[in-house]
Amino acid sequence: MSVLITGGCGYIGSHMVWELHDSGESVVVIDNLSTGFDWVLPKDVPLVVGDIGDQALVGQVIRDHGVNAIIHFAGSIVVPDSVTDPLGYYFNNTVKSRGLIEEAVSAGVNSFIFSSTAAVYGIPDTDSPIAEDMPLQPISPYGSSKLMTEIMLRDAAFAYPDFNYTALRYFNVAGADPKGRAGQSTPRATHLIKVANQTALGDRSHMDVFGTDYNTPDGTCVRDYIHVSDLAKAHALALARLRDGGDSLVANCGYGHGYSVLQVLEAVKRASGVDFAVNYVDRRAGDPPSLVANSERAGSVLGWEPSHADLDLIVETALSWERMLLQKHT
Ligand code: UDP
Question: Is residue 73 a part of any domain in this protein?
């Protein structure tokens, strides 16, 4: 029996593959390699290069590999792109997820884990940690496309009692595998820690800090940065729980502690030893001042105990990966 990981060649998916591989699980990956890389997978993990929108292919993979659980990462993740190409995002993230869920239900694959996002909360009315029952009011097609998939899963689980899912809402995922086997490899990545590391290593000439006039302690936005290996662990716990007969669940994944943009930049300067210059520019559209998770549910229901909750460790592992990428590309 195997676990199907969609998008297993991407950033978070590849960490998930290694997490399950390390624990002796049999895994199969479907990835269309639109943004992922096949070299990041363990050599003995089968990769089916194809699109999750190809339902016949998904059905065949489920049968051929005896799939009994699905962890679904494949999708488009660039928020500003979702604003200019909403229909593309709804197709890739929502329509294709519907097909995947249909294949799971019809093949009797009753454990389904979904990669959701804090973007489903939009701009929260509060600066306090956000719990799962806060209003769901995404402000981008990306957030809406993920929320719509959560709703499809909820309704499917209601209609088909054997089918259970876990949707994990990620806060700001960062860092890389401490063993150096996987990391964020997308060249176009816009995430703060990636951009700052690239600037420290001279791979970018400069970087911007978007907004210094927020109502936060130092005026820059506060985010809950979570190490990708802790996030993969949360999925592994969710998988074990579903296999044990656990019911459907939505849970936040974050540390419950935020850092400002300036604090992150200080950590990158500490780790790299480079005091790079930054430009202070206007706010970026759609950035909430503060996004911090209340993850008590993941702790109490999944038994999730993060072991990498340290900004310096997050930055150092991401920096090592960035150095490796630079060497690889020169
Ligand atoms: N940010 C920044 N400069 C950058 C990239 C990001 O100042 O080059 C800020 C961004 O405005 C936000 C925070 O860093 O306040 C985290 O942004 P990121 O894109 O990493 O994640 P998001 O919170 O948007 O999902």
Answer: yes
